[in-house]
Amino acid sequence: MFQILHAINIDWMGRRRVFIGASVFLMLLGLGSAVVRQATGRQAFNLGVDFKGGTVVTARFKQRPTDDQIRAALIQKGINDAVVQPVTDRTDTVLIKVPLEGEGQDGRARVREALNQFGAEATPGTELEQDQNASYKIVGTDAVGAIAGAQLRNKAIAVTLAALVGILIYIAARFEWTYGAAAVIAVFHDVLVTLGFFSIFQIEVSLNVIAALLTLVGFSVNDTIVVFDRIRENRKLHRRDSLYKITNDAINQTLSRTVITNGLVFLSVLALVLFGGDVLRAFSLALFIGVVFGTYSSIAIASPIMVWWEQRLDAANREATLAFNQPRNQPRVIKATRSAKQSLRDASKPLH
Amino acid sequence: MKKKNLLTRVIIIAIVTLVGLYLVIGPRRRPTLQDFTWSGIKQTLAHNIHLGLDLQGGSHLVMRVKTEEFLKRLTEDNYVAAQNAAKDAGHEIKGGRADAGSGNYRIVLEPADASKAAEIKEAVQKKVELGDTSVWSYSQSGGTLTWTMTPTAERLLADNATTQALNIIDSRINALGIAEPTLQTHGAQSSHQLLLQMPGVQDPERVKEILKGESRLELVHVVGPPSPSPAATYPTEQAAIESLGGTVPPNRKVMQYSERIEKSADPNQPRPKQWVVVESPAIIDGSELRNASAVPSQGGGADDYEINFSLKRAGADKFGAWTGAHINEYMGVVLNGEVKSIAFIKSQIYDSGQITGRFSKQSAEDLALTLRSGALPAAIEYLEERTVGPSLGADSIRAGVRASLVGLALVVVFMLIYYRGSGVNAVVALILNMILMLAGLIVFGATLTLPGIAGIILTIGMAVDSNVLIFERIREELLSGKTIPSAVDLGFQRAFITIIDTHVTTIISSLFLFVFGTGPIRGFAVTLVIGLLVNLFSAVYVSRTIFIWLLSRKKVESLSI
Questions:
Q1: Distance from B487 to chain A by nearest Cα, in Å?
Q2: Cis amide linkage into residue B111, ω under 30° from 0
Q3: All structural domains of chain A
Q4: A241, B18, B120, B212: which has the highest count of C-beta atoms within 10 A?
Q5: What's B141-154 look like in SS3?
Q6: Structure confidence by residue, pLDDT tens digits, B76-91
Q7: Which residues contact B240 (CB under 8 A, 6 or more apart)?
Q8: Which residues of chain B have a CB within 8 Å of the CB of A152?
Q9: Taking CB atoms and an 8 Å cutoff, what residues of chain A touch B407?
Q10: Identical fold between B2-57+389-553 and B216-360
């Protein structure tokens, strides 16, 4: 049997401060980027037309003019703040992004007027290659108005939150409230870190990126559940062990699965980044970052939070029981106090 | 018992696999030998799977019906009618207004004699629909009469206007002969939005213009300048208003008149603006229209078309009676609030008329089409427009398929190296998963979109996760000294709990995406949900069966895992 990561014994919980510290640092970095950019008048996120409104025209040329030539042609027709973006996997194709205009302005028609300076467009219904006289063709447009943009944005946020509530309820029903809350906090962490990356590197946020964030939510919870499931099982098998040890064991036992599965998902997503084309690039990038942090967070965020929370509840419960039972049941009280102390000690265990 | 159990399992799997396979690559007719060649399979595959607009090319339009405009017009019309009704009953009205700002629709009348308020109310409500208390709530303060539209009625009327617009747009699309369009309401009901998808339409500009055409036709009585011959006009709006004494009374309207330009005129030159005063309300409106068609103008050139229209029976009666009483006066044809032509009434006219105005053949035909389909209750605006050409779609398919195959190959190679014999097991499950997932898409009539392809790639990840969970658990049980059969048993049992939990959570979040999400997000959710459901069968049931079969053959000494 060829096996990686056999019989590992790492004290994950002992390093929780490092983990949480690193995560907080990353989140602050992303938040800082967003806040600073917003405050200095730049954009916190590079929102695509889906959310900001505007028009993207995809044009394909027989003989593609340079970006500067296209820009000059646009300016000549009064389109001053257009962005001309080459398509990496098709050299004959270019994306022209025109910001939102007043009502009744047709971005596509205006871009067409500008591009007509390079020659005629292929007649509707024919491909560029079939039309002898044509020199370009508009092969795609996305035009989103201000209302639709705001609507899509609000909907994306609402759907994500609703999905998280659904997950919280399911985990709470199958496990405990604390488990559900810990999983959801970890998911929030993943989404925030990924969004931070998008702000720092100014990668365009489109509807597809939202789909990727939602996938990431699914994946992160998936990973967390695998660990929690093992914790639940170990708690039944080893009642005497502390939650601290049980959690460490569960993470170690599932570690080879975690590495294999996420490694494979990572490879599929890498294939998507490399071969999925430009349309899916931002989507795949979001997933790429998400898979890494989704794996990390189930070990480094969800589990420590759950352990800390459970121990707090445990300690509080025991204290309540202690006060209630004190006059009569002396021996049990002593035992209870000891284990309550034990769990508190575990909770505040220093790094080793 | 084990043997019999195994047989049942094998039969179930064989049936599901064959049915799935036939759904994916089998034609929906009597198959011929041709269908089982490579190109035949490819063709049927393309036919069986519905591709989204982003993959096959087409246009996607989201539009909003400006229902507030509809309600505003309704309020204004009722205001004019109420004034007229009060006057007809012999009461003098000294002021009033129709409010339509800030989402509140209100009609205010101020009678000259405040003590007559109750009588005026009676008179108005008898003749005008303001008496309908389900729509208008009446209140009176001092001598002022106020009717306010109830919020329920506002909602209901706006919804009706949206439905009406949907029907009209639908008939226009059909008249245009667009293949397989889908038109439906979009988003929340209160957003009054419509979504139109037209596969294969790459350049929707003409369609957009036609759908947007309000085509509000009215026939009006032109009253100013008085008795013009030939039709005289005012040079400015101001002059027209001054002729009415400085303010426009509610039963009059000042409208722009775009005169028919002579053929010699330069078409690029702006038309001189002219104004006329017309009587309000109109004699009849577009709802009385029976038919409209584009015809070349008499004596006009190749690009000089006009529109002939005819009226329905009731409209014709009304129109005939009116023209009979107004011989030697002028009537105007008003389109979308602008007078298009003015005609001298020589004799009684019953049921037909023309709209002249130097239309090109195309614009006359488009206008006739929209007139036939009826006027939109309110203008529409486009919120979202996405078009994808077939070549761009084909590029996306190629990229998506390539990425899926590379991902799949990587997974297969790893599983075979790492789990050896059992890896075969996982690969069989994975391939079956792919087939059944496509079959699921076909059975549910779901559309495959570009994000849907991404969903497929993620399903590969989730599917392989189930196998990894099971295999790792079996290995663990073996290492702890269990016999092979009991390690397999325990591995499946324990891993199954985890698999169910992970699948249910992902399905829950995907369902939210499917129900509340839009376009690309939905396409993604559909493939993911189908893929995960299929996975419970392929990764757990099928994989288990293969293990049972392996263990049942002879006494097993080692397990290749």
A1: 15
A2: no
A3: 13-36+149-347 (1.20.1640.10), 54-144 (3.30.70)
A4: B120
A5: ECCEEEEEECHHHH
A6: 888 888 888 888 888 8
A7: B224, B234, B254, B275, B276, B277
A8: 518
A9: 267-268, 271-272
A10: no
Cβ distance of A284 and B512 shorter than 8 Å? no
Q: What is the mean pLDDT of each run of 10 residues along chain A (352 residues)?
A: 70 89 92 91 85 88 90 87 84 87 71 88 79 86 84 82 88 90 92 91 84 81 90 90 91 90 85 78 83 88 90 85 60 46 52 42
Q: What is the mean pLDDT of chain B?
A: 83
More confident residue, B149 or B270: B149
How far from B242 is each of B225, B234, B236, B481, CA to CA, in Å? 11, 10, 10, 105
CATH number for region B2-57+389-553: 1.20.1640.10
> B200: closest CA among B175, B226, B169, B177?
B177
Mention every residue, 6+ apart, whose C-beta is less than 8 A from residue B15.
Answer: none
Q: Which of A103, A215, A275 sits opposite B381 (nearest CB)?
A: A103
Instruction: Identify the pLDDT of residue A335.
Output: 46
Q: Does B454 contact A155 at a Cβ distance shorter than 8 Å? A: no
Pair of tokens at residue B321 = 């009676």
Q: Which has more confidence, B424 or B305?
A: B424
Considering the domain B216-360 in this protein, what is its CATH number? 3.30.1360.200
**What CA–CA distance (Å, rounded) separates B491 from B485?**
10
With CB atoms and an 8 Å threshold, state whether A264 touches B411: yes
Report the complex ipTM. 0.80
Nearest to A309 by CA among A237, A248, A255, A244: A244
Whether omega for the bond prior to residue B267 falls within 30 degrees of 0, making it cis, is: no
Closest residue by Cα to residue B539 from B452, B438, B425: B425
Residue of B nearest to A274 (CA): B403
Taking an 8 Å cut-off on Cβ atoms, the answer to whether A277 and B501 are in contact is: no
Question: Using the beta-carbon criterion (under 8 Å), do B418 and A2 form an inter-chain contact?
Answer: yes
Query: Is the Cβ–Cβ distance between B505 and A171 less than 8 Å?
Result: yes
Specify the residue for token string 């209901």.
B156
Contacts of A107 by beta carbon, 8 Å cutoff, 6+ apart: A54, A55, A57, A98, A101, A141, A143
Interface of B with A in 186-225 (CB under 8 A): 187, 191, 202-203, 205
What's the average model confidence in pLDDT over B517-524?
A: 75
Query: What's the angle, vertex CA B210, arms to CA B208 and CA B211, rounded to 5?
Result: 65
Domain chopping of chain B, boundaries: 2-57+389-553, 81-147, 216-360
A122–chain B Cβ distance below 8 A for any pair: no
- Amino acid, res. A230: R
Cα B121 to the chain's mean position, in Å? Answer: 42
Q: Say if the Cβ atoms of A210 and B524 lie within 8 Å.
A: no
**Tens digit of pLDDT for each residue in B211-225?**
888 778 888 888 877
**Do residues B61 and B196 touch, judged by C-beta distance below 8 A?**
yes
Dump pLDDT digits (tens) for B328-370: 888 888 888 888 778 777 778 777 877 776 677 887 888 888 8
pLDDT at residue A333 in the model: 44
B464 in A contact zone (CB under 8 Å): yes
Model confidence at B227: pLDDT above 70: no
Q: What is the pLDDT of residues B92-131, one digit of tens each?
A: 888 888 888 766 898 888 888 878 888 888 888 887 888 7
CB contact under 8 A, B521 and A147: no
DSSP B445: T
Nearest CB to A279; choose among B450, B460, B517? B450
- Kindly determine whether residue A140 and residue B388, on different chains, have CB atoms separated by under 8 Å: yes
* HEC secondary structure over A314-351: HHHHHHHHHHHHCCCCHHHHHHHHHHHHHHHHHHCCCC
Q: Give pLDDT, residue B230.
A: 53
